[in-house]
């Protein structure tokens, strides 16, 4: 199922009806949360649209309740603090679903900043779909990321139109919460500490008949922390995604991904051959040695991979 690119589609129903939109943020001790809230306060909402903000705190204790409530007041936001303890992101996400009373719900991460037109762009793409994805653009300044990582832009979340919900994420999304409620959809708590719960949620939406859209102009920005600017972190993230994919694929989907695997095998071999060009191309050789493991579809112990890591890219 391909995504509909609706970046050129105007919002048609805002002038007819008032619309309440809930923006949800799950947080755990991140100081960047205030910047995220400030960017929401600066949103240029279309006529007839009002925004409510829900912050679900995943910490064991609600020590930030007063601080976050103060930020709501300072920024003029209609906000609600929800304590969702136990350090399980799915519990926090489900708390957001329970607290949101509106039909349309958006999610943004607590270390992202949204330009003023973010919500307007998401809302403009919701006609005839139940879910719209935007782009999460990584900022590598100050991260210490190596040049090959910056050039490859591995930390940005940019969904591909042919993927449908296969790689869905909650860092920049708008969806029809009434559809979710009708079908009893939830974020799986058994994945809340290992990852992949958002991908499974959107796959469940797709199975229930949801249609998906994509607006590349709905962009949020995220600084890459130094602890994530390394190959080990990238490999671990890809491994989690692969395990989640394997747990939910139908036989038909497995066959489709096997065809993609064969294609990626060929590209990976090409990249490995690029490891041994003339000595006059050291930068290209270095980039290829690190991209090759990330482009393969099979177990790999190539240059740059941590010892013992088995990587399968879905």
Q: What is the distance, rounded to the nearest whole angstrom, between the alpha carbons of the first and last residues?
A: 16 Å
Number of domains: 2
Backbone CA Rg: 20 Å
**Which percent range fits the helix content?**
25-40%
Q: Can you identify the CATH class of the largest domain?
A: Alpha Beta
Unreliable sequence segments: 8-16, 295-307, 309-314
Q: What is the H-and-E element order?
A: EEHEHEHEEHEHEHHEHHH
Q: Give me the CATH fold name of the largest domain.
A: Spore Coat Polysaccharide Biosynthesis Protein SpsA, Chain A
Strand content: 15-25%
Report on the architecture of this protein.
By secondary structure, the protein is α/β, with parallel strands linked by helices. It folds into 2 domains: 4-228, Alpha-Beta Complex (Spore Coat Polysaccharide Biosynthesis Protein SpsA, Chain A), CATH 3.90.550; 231-295, no CATH class. The chain contains 10 helices and 9 strands. The protein has helices spanning 33-41, 65-75, 89-99, 118-123, 147-152, 177-182, 197-207, 231-248, 251-273, 282-295; strands at 4-5, 19-27, 49-57, 79-83, 104-108, 112-113, 131-139, 172-176, 212-223. Strands 1, 2, 3, 4, 5, 6, 7, 8 and 9 form a 9-stranded mixed sheet that branches. Helix 1 links the parallel strand 2 (19-27) and strand 3 (49-57). Helix 1 (33-41) runs parallel beside helix 2 (65-75) and helix 9 (251-273) runs antiparallel to helix 10. The protein is globular and about 45 Å long. The chain starts with a strand and ends in a 19-residue tail after the last helix. Residues 8-16, 295-307 and 309-314 have low confidence and may be disordered.
């Amino acid at each position: 199922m391909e995504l509909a690119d609706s970046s050129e589609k105007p919002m048609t129903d805002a002038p007819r009806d008032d619309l309440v939109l809930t923006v949800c943020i799950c947080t755990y001790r991140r100081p960047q949360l205030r910047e995220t809230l400030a960017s929401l306060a600066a949103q240029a909402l279309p006529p007839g649209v009002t925004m409510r903000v829900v912050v679900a705190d995943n910490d064991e204790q609600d020590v930030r309740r007063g601080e976050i409530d103060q930020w709501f007041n300072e920024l003029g936001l209609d906000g609600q603090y929800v304590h969702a303890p136990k350090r399980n992101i799915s519990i926090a996400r489900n708390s957001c679903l329970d607290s949101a009373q509106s039909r349309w719900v958006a999610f943004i991460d607590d270390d992202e900043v949204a330009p003023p037109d973010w919500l307007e762009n998401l809302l403009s793409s919701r006609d005839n779909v139940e879910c719209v994805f935007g782009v999460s653009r990584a900022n590598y300044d100050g991260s210490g990321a190596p040049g090959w990582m910056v050039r490859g832009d591995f930390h940005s979340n940019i969904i591909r139109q042919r993927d449908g919900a296969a790689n869905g994420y909650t860092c920049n999304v708008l969806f029809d919460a009434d559809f979710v409620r009708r079908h009893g959809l939830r974020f799986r708590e058994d994945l809340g500490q290992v990852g992949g719960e958002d991908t499974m949620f959107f796959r469940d939406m797709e199975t229930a008949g949801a249609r998906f859209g994509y607006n590349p102009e709905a962009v949020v920005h995220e600084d890459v922390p130094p602890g994530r600017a390394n190959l080990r972190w990238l490999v671990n993230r890809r491994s989690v995604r692969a395990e989640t994919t394997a747990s939910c694929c139908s036989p038909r989907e497995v066959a489709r991904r096997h065809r993609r695997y064969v294609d990626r095998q060929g590209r990976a071999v090409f990249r490995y051959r690029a490891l041994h060009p003339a000595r006059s191309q050291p930068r290209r050789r270095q980039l290829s040695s690190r991209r090759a493991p990330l482009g393969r579809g099979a177990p790999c112990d190539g240059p740059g991979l941590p010892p013992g890591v088995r990587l399968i890219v879905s």
